């Protein structure tokens, strides 16, 4: 039997969250946290609705996953997020000691790699999963905003 | 008449918050946000109580100040924090476009300056205000923990 729980499978869940952000007129970024093929947290960017620059999808997902686990470290967890994390989110992921980060679209300007933010040495990163779908959603959002 | 609203004055308020964290067995870091000599947000580190790595004093202060102001940008605001912000908090401060950051003790290992986190170009920084008091509190905390 084929394993349906691929990185693409979970990135699609994150994309669904990003679409919910788009519908709410938020910059469309979505995230899920997965442990043992189970989604334990899902979130999307809510900076406008909450009037809060800290309300990025990843930040909410970290808080929510820790709440589910009953502990603040996200060992054995994977974060799927549609856009490369920023400095803030990468800094939060550092503290969480998360095992794995999978992101879709790169952010050449504000992404953590460009800005040199340090992740935890235990954290593995995979990028470019459903990259085009993730990027197109954000591009369409800003085209609509013009 | 002498102006009582000095940086030391507001850093003492942040120190009081740090002391509350100490009493709660949290790493003792406190913060206040000030606009026009008025404290609009106060907070201390709650990562243990909330089981949440994102619950640093600064993160809560940013959220709380934005809530008070009814807008997510902290223009004309000063954050006083007893310890140099980490990558996550500096990244959040970047997004907030805060006017000024004043911190007490430096954090040579995890501080944003060592790790090269970018602040907003509009943000001014002053460091070393009540440095010794801020540092001693943290040192005592870790001595107690041994």
UniProtKB/TrEMBL annotation, chains A, B:
Active site, renumbered: 58 (proton donor)
EC number annotated for this UniProt entry: 3.5.4.33
PROSITE patterns recorded: CYT_DCMP_DEAMINASES_1 (PS00903), CYT_DCMP_DEAMINASES_2 (PS51747)
Co-factor requirement: Zn(2+)
Enzyme class, broadest EC rank: hydrolase
Swiss-Prot/TrEMBL catalytic activity: adenosine(34) in tRNA + H2O + H(+) = inosine(34) in tRNA + NH4(+)
InterPro entries for this protein: APOBEC/CMP_deaminase_Zn-bd, CMP_dCMP_dom, Cytidine_deaminase-like, MafB19-deam, tRNA_aden_deaminase
Binding positions for Zn(2+) per the UniProt entry: 56, 86, 89
Domain CMP/dCMP-type deaminase: 5-115
Record keywords: Hydrolase, Metal-binding, tRNA processing, Zinc
Cofactor note: Binds 1 zinc ion per subunit.
Range of residues in the leader sequence: none
GO BP terms, alphabetized: tRNA wobble adenosine to inosine editing
A GO molecular-function annotation: zinc ion binding
Database matches in PANTHER family: CYTOSINE DEAMINASE FAMILY MEMBER (PTHR11079), TRNA-SPECIFIC ADENOSINE DEAMINASE (PTHR11079:SF202)
Function according to Swiss-Prot or TrEMBL: Catalyzes the deamination of adenosine to inosine at the wobble position 34 of tRNA(Arg2).
Family indicated by similarity: Belongs to the cytidine and deoxycytidylate deaminase family. ADAT2 subfamily.
Subunit structure and binding partners: Homodimer.
Protein's name according to its UniProt entry: tRNA-specific adenosine deaminase
Protein species of origin: Flavobacterium indicum (strain DSM 17447 / CIP 109464 / GPTSA100-9)
């Amino acid at each position: 039997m084929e394993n349906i729980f691929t990185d693409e499978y979970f990135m699609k869940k994150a994309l669904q969250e990003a679409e919910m952000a788009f519908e709410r007129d938020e910059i469309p970024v979505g995230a899920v946290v997965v442990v043992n093929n189970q989604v334990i947290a899902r979130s999307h960017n809510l900076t406008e609705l909450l009037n809060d620059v800290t309300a990025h999808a990843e930040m909410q997902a970290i808080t929510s996953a820790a709440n589910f686990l009953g502990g603040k470290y996200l060992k054995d967890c994977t974060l799927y997020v549609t856009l490369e994390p920023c400095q803030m989110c990468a800094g939060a992921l550092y503290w969480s000691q998360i095992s794995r980060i999978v992101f879709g679209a790169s952010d050449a300007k504000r992404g953590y790699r460009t800005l040199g933010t340090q992740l935890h040495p235990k954290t593995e990163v995979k990028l470019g999963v459903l990259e085009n779908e993730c990027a197109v959603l954000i591009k369409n959002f800003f085209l609509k905003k013009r």
